[in-house]
Write a structure and sequence with these properties.
Helix content of chain B: 25-40%
CATH topology of the largest domain in chain B: Rossmann fold
Strand order of the largest sheet of chain A: 1-2
Shape of chain A: globular
Number of domains of chain A: 2
CATH architecture of the largest domain in chain B: 3-Layer(aba) Sandwich
Number of domains of chain B: 2
Shape of chain B: globular
Helix content of chain A: 55-70%
Largest interface: A-B, 57 and 67 residues
Strand content of chain A: under 5%
CATH class of the largest domain in chain B: Alpha Beta
Number of strands of chain B: 10
Order of helices and strands of chain B: EEEHEEHEHHHHHEHEHEEHH
Oligomer: heterodimer
Number of helices of chain A: 20
Chain lengths: ~450, ~270
């Protein structure tokens, strides 16, 4: 048996060479074995888990050290921590979408809808202010932030099932179009239905202060986000554990089976309706939790924050990192946020403040008025395109997609099971040697 | 093997018709498969054999007529419900889950026996863990039905298997659901003579060891004639003959369907 870890690479030995970009660059970029071995080792497995876990745990302290070498007027530790929290929210979204797209293979382009639902749920539930059908303000009993998290997950999950139900028979492009529509409808409903305060936006009460035996913890303190950071981190860890438990279970197997071959999965006893709705519902619930954190963190929400671009960003994150791979999806989210928040704006500022470029005689003068922030999806698109050509399985590929070939030995207790069976078989009637009628007609 | 053909009826098709628009793929077919027998459906290409399988397993619903299994109707049941009633199948063009391991393929086949509600799974409740362990052991047993090869390669991806083993793994997956009736859609298609002879042997062993009734679609007449207790012949969606292998071999309609009409006076 020959291994086929890279059909793609065998077929397209060197895509860049065919583009005329030279053999060496192409060979270097195609040398994914180098990337597989080193990167995956640094990013997956228990060693990497412990290391990155510690980094995440001490991130507030590490960031406060950064003021020694970074200009605190631009990179204040607390602002960096805020960026880390917003990044964490995207990590949640990516982990949620990974269930729908990565495991179950259902292309969902309207994931932002559940993000919106989560944000507005926490806004209404914790402020206790809604409007009735005649646009009059009505107060309802407010619930605490802690109760709002499961409530948002429930409501978003329910909406996910509601979206999933009519789209059960759709696959691929058709499903993508319907979910895209759903993602567009939800923000428009928020904008145009008075109940949701429309274009005015909505103030979300800050996260609460709690009293612990060790003193007061203020999750909503805008001068020190570390408490909220740890809350975000804890929720992410719970979501990761949930994902791992689901992945290695009968549900995870059924999801991957329907991704591989829906008909065969159904003929193997997988209830397609149930298992697809489960993927939609759980993915949506995690998106709703992300929405809760987003609502509290940004404190003022309005419909225009929730564009199609959010759905696309999350999708790019999981493709970039490696569809179906938990470390990959997390890395993808962090990487894309980093490019979005730091790289693009830094390059943009550099271009706009460059003295040589300010001279109108400079042939590249037009770059001064070129705002990279408005064209960032062009850059994301290019990144995605390069990724699909050079490394379609993502930065940290899911093992399943690598199709590694290696014989694996049996555990002792398994060997004994097999031994028993073989003994039973040899004791039983031997298979018939001759078959009558063979070769007749 | 004539003795087995007197058993009780396990599967019964009553005037089953399936039309796709103007085309009638299956035209008022009656079949009775008795418990414990190997029953073959043969016929030229496009005769509607696979459509019959798809009708039995709930992938299609009959336009008219009724399918009765083990005394109850299969009307409007989805494929997974049909499986839970005790009918498992394999596919003509092997449909394994290629990016799942051999073990996982065998485990998916036992999906109906493992709890898949969110609560049991997330908290790994005792009933879930017990079912999972039992399914794992049973998967090993089923894999070892075909010798040690599949067992020792159980952590490899199904895509890596050679053709004959892919067919076998598909049977393992089907057996996972503890079926009463196994539908095999051309189990020897694409196999050479040696592999075909081996397939004939294991199909007979399947019936013995798992107490199965087997319904078979097969193109190779050497296979059907060798192992079938009874044979039905389809042509253009209609059943043109049914009987013991020896009867079918000398049936004029069957010879005509396969070889063409005898020219008068030639």
């Amino acid at each position: 048996m020959s291994a086929s870890p890279s059909h793609f690479q065998q077929k397209m030995q060197n895509p860049l060479k065919s583009l005329g970009l030279g053999k060496k660059i192409g060979d270097f970029l195609n040398n994914t074995k180098f990337l597989n071995r080193s990167l995956s080792w640094y990013l997956t497995g228990w060693r990497a888990g412990i290391f990155w876990g510690l980094v995440a745990l001490f991130l507030p302290q590490l960031l406060s050290l950064s003021s020694n070498f970074l200009d605190p007027t631009y990179f204040a530790p607390n602002v960096l921590l805020l960026d880390a929290i917003l990044c964490g929210i995207y990590v949640m979204l990516a982990l949620g979408l990974n269930i729908v797209v990565g495991y179950a293979g259902l292309l969902d382009l309207g994931y932002v809808a559940f993000f919106v639902i989560g944000s507005y749920t926490v806004a209404f539930a914790t402020s206790g202010i809604i409007r009735n059908i005649h646009s009059q303000v009505v107060t309802i009993p407010a619930i605490s932030f802690w109760a709002a998290i499961p409530l948002a997950a429930l409501i978003a999950g329910f909406m996910g099932v509601l979206l999933g139900a009519p789209t059960l028979r759709l696959r691929g492009d058709y499903l993508a179009i319907v979910t895209l529509g759903f993602g567009e409808i939800v923000p428009i409903v928020i904008k145009d239905v008075p109940f949701f305060y429309g274009a005015l936006g909505f103030q979300v009460p800050p996260a609460p202060v709690i009293n612990t035996p060790f003193g007061q913890v203020d999750f909503g303190n805008p001068l020190d986000f570390s408490a909220f950071y740890y809350l975000t981190l804890a929720v992410i860890i719970l979501i990761v554990m949930f994902n791992i438990l689901l992945r290695n279970s009968s549900i995870g197997r059924a999801w991957i089976a329907i991704r591989e071959d829906e008909l065969a999965a159904s003929a193997s006893g997988v209830n397609l309706v149930r298992i697809k709705l489960m993927a939609f519902g759980l993915g949506a619930a995690i998106g709703g939790i992300g929405g809760v954190f987003n609502g509290v963190m940004t404190s003022s929400i309005s419909y225009d924050q929730f564009s199609f671009q959010v759905s696309i960003s999350v999708l790019i994150m999981i493709v970039l990192g490696g569809i179906g791979s938990i470390p990959g999806v997390i890395l993808g989210a962090i990487l894309l946020r980093f490019i979005d928040v730091y790289v693009i704006s830094t390059i943009s500022t550099m271009l706009q403040t460059n003295i040589a470029l300010a001279n109108p005689a400079n042939p590249f003068h037009f770059l001064v008025s070129f705002n990279l922030n408005t064209t960032k999806f062009l850059i994301f698109g290019l990144i995605l395109l390069l990724m699909i050509i050079l490394r379609p399985q993502g930065i940290v590929p899911n093992k399943r997609r690598q199709l590694e070939l290696q014989g694996v030995g049996l555990a002792p207790e398994e060997l004994s099971v097999v031994g028993e069976i073989e003994r039973e078989e040899s004791g039983a009637s031997a298979p018939p040697d001759s078959v009558e009628g063979l070769g007749d007609i | 093997m004539a003795g087995t053909s007197k058993g009780e009826v396990l599967l019964q098709l009553k005037h089953v018709t399936k039309s796709f628009g103007g085309l009638t793929a299956v035209d008022s077919i009656d079949l009775e498969v008795r418990k414990g027998e190997i029953f073959s459906i043969i016929g030229p290409n496009g005769a509607g054999k696979t459509t019959v399988f798809n009708l039995i397993t709930g992938i299609y619903q009959p336009t008219s007529g009724e399918i009765i299994f083990n005394g109850s109707s299969l009307k409007n049941l989805s494929p997974d419900r049909v499986l839970r009633r005790g009918i498992a199948r394999t596919f003509q063009n092997i449909r394994l889950f290629n990016n799942m391991t051999i073990m996982e393929n065998a485990m998916v086949g036992q999906h109906p026996f493992i709890p898949s509600d969110l609560f049991s799974v997330t908290f790994r409740l005792p009933n879930y863990r017990a079912a999972e362990k039992k399914a794992h052991n049973r998967a090993l047993q089923l894999l070892s039905f075909f010798g040690s090869e599949l067992v020792f390669r159980k952590e490899e991806y199904a895509a890596n298997l050679a053709y004959a083993f892919r067919r076998r793994l598909e049977i393992v997956r089907a057996l996972g659901s503890r079926p009463k009736l196994l539908l095999l859609d051309e189990p020897t298609a694409g196999m050479n003579d040696a592999e075909t002879a081996e397939a004939i042997k294991y199909i007979q062993r399947l019936r013995q060891e798992f107490d199965l009734t087997i319904l078979l679609i097969e193109h190779k007449l050497q296979v059907t004639m060798g192992i079938s207790d009874r044979i039905a012949v389809l042509d253009y969606g209609r059943k043109i003959a049914e009987g013991l292998p020896a009867e079918i071999q000398h049936n004029d309609l069957v010879i005509e369907a396969y070889l063409g009409r005898k020219v008068e006076g030639a």
